[in-house]
Amino acid sequence: MRKKVILITGASGEIGQALVQSLCEQNELPIITLDIAPVSEAAHPNVLHMQGDILDKALLSRLVSEYEVDTIFHLAALLSTRAEFTPEAAHRVNVEGTLGLLQMAAEQSDWRGNPVKFIFPSSIAAYGLPDLETKTQYTRVREWEWNNPRTMYGCNKLYCEQLGIYYSQYYRQLAADRPVMLDFRCLRFPGLISAYTVPSGGTSDYGPEMLHAAAQNKPYGSFVREDCRIPFMAMPDAVKSLLHLTAAPRENLRHSVYNVTSFSLSAIEFRDWVLKYFPEGQITFQPDEKRQAIVDSWPADLDDSAAQRDWGWSPDYNLERSFGEYLVPNIRRRYQG
Ligand code: AKB
Question: How confident is the model at residue 39 (pLDDT cuts 50, 70, 90)?
Answer without folding.
Answer: confident
